[in-house]
């Protein structure tokens, strides 16, 4: 898989100081997890499921999830399972699907049905998303996938979704997260990334966040995200990549608060009209939340609409300034001290910033590095033009 491969070479030269590299889907898990980007969910009952997956894969989506859980009514579950098996086999026969494709299950039974039902489809199945992952059920799921992977001769990966009340409620949170960490650590080679189910967390308190707010304005959820990162997102070798929760809005609405996008970057790029389009589709809130995700230690994001993919990917590209700072820190060696940024606007502290620099260079290899003076606005405009073409 390779990001922005659907853009013309001339566009790459305009945007990138360093173009995205090809990511080996059978390679290093840490790099592959960063490469999830915007993970697009599609209901298993969607009409034209195969065409939908192929269309999105050819338009810049690099990871997708076929959803058997919340997106499927109970009465439709059996038919949805049959459709998933058939879709995976058909997608494999096309032979042109170069993305990470997962199935979100309800129970362990779904894993058996999919793995035992597919024939050619094993070639395109990356693994499973496991909702409501808890310490009392997670080990069984991971063991099942271990066994089926060995039987099928295919590395199948798991992305647990943390969204249960045991994690959300203060009196059980620490013990539950500690137990989950032990389970994930035992199956480290099977766990691609940890996902966060903020919608279910909000539901436990009867909350639905407004589109004028980010998930970080919902304190009970923001506190839980912080705890998840604290237990599972450490950079000492014990942690995992943790992805950002879903942004669920994609249509215009009457606003109570002013938009979250500053006008200046768009004015400087003669893109005022483009900014208005983003605001009209509530994408300013998504952009703000993606920035806050990264500030809080999360990478990538769950998305439920194709319009959400370009903003997430545009903000995933490493800026020329970030890249130069990261290189400077890494090339300085392992000693301490400080260096002035080549951009002459900050100090780079060599020891505290080293993990950040290492992660930034991984992101640079996956999403590329912008040319000096090129901004996320330029990247988003290029993606918007390609989508409209």
TrEMBL record:
Keywords for this protein: Magnesium, Metal-binding
A GO MF label: magnesium ion binding
InterPro entries given in the database record: C-C_Bond_Lyase-like, Citrate_lyase_beta/mcl1/mcl2, Pyrv/PenolPyrv_kinase-like_dom, Pyrv_kinase-like_dom_sf
Keyword check for GTP-binding: no
Pfam families the UniProt entry points to: C-C_Bond_Lyase (PF15617)
Superkingdom as given in the UniProt entry: Bacteria
Binding-site list for Mg(2+): 200
Cofactor or coenzyme needed: Mg(2+)
UniProt record, GO biological process: oxaloacetate metabolic process
Keyword Magnesium belongs to the record: yes
Database matches in PANTHER family: CITRATE LYASE SUBUNIT BETA, LYASE BETA SUBUNIT, PUTATIVE (AFU_ORTHOLOGUE AFUA_4G13030)-RELATED
Protein's recorded name: ATP/GTP-binding protein
Organism for this UniProt entry: Rhodococcoides trifolii
Phylogenetic placement of the source organism: Bacteria, Bacillati, Actinomycetota, Actinomycetes, Mycobacteriales
């Amino acid at each position: 898989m390779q990001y922005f491969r659907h853009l013309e070479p001339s566009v790459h030269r305009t945007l990138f100081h360093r173009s995205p590299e090809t990511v080996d889907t059978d390679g290093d898990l840490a790099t592959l997890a960063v490469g999830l980007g915007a993970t697009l969910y599609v209901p298993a009952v969607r009409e034209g499921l195969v065409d939908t997956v192929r269309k999105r894969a050819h338009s810049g989506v690099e990871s997708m999830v076929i959803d058997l859980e919340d997106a499927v009514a109970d009465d439709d579950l059996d038919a949805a399972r049959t459709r998933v098996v058939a879709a995976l086999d058909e997608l494999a026969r096309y032979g042109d699907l170069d993305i990470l494709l997962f199935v979100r299950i309800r129970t362990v039974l779904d894993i058996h049905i999919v793995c035992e039902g597919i024939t050619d489809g094993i070639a395109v199945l990356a693994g499973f998303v496991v909702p409501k992952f808890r310490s009392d059920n997670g080990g069984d799921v991971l063991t099942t996938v271990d066994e089926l992977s060995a039987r099928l001769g295919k590395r199948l990966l798991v992305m647990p979704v943390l969204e249960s009340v045991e994690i959300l409620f203060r009196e059980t949170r620490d013990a539950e997260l500690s137990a989950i960490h032990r389970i994930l650590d035992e199956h480290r080679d099977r766990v691609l990334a940890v996902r966060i189910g903020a919608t279910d967390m909000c539901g436990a308190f009867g909350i639905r966040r407004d589109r004028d707010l980010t998930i970080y304005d919902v304190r009970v959820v923001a506190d839980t995200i912080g705890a998840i990162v604290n237990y599972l997102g450490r950079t000492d070798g014990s942690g995992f990549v943790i992805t950002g929760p879903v942004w669920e809005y994609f249509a215009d609405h009457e606003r109570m608060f002013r938009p979250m996008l500053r006008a200046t970057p768009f004015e400087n790029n003669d893109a005022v009209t483009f900014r208005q389009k983003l605001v009209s589709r509530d994408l300013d809130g998504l952009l703000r939340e993606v920035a806050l995700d990264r500030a809080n230690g999360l990478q990538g994001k769950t998305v439920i609409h194709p319009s959400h993919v370009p903003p997430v990917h545009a903000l995933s590209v490493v800026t020329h300034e970030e890249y130069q700072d990261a290189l400077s820190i890494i090339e300085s060696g392992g000693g301490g001290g400080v260096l002035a940024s080549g951009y002459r606007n900050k100090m780079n502290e060599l020891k505290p910033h080293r993990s950040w620099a290492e992660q930034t260079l991984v992101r640079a290899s996956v999403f590329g590095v912008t040319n000096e003076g090129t901004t996320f606005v330029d990247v988003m405009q290029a993606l918007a033009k390609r989508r409209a073409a």
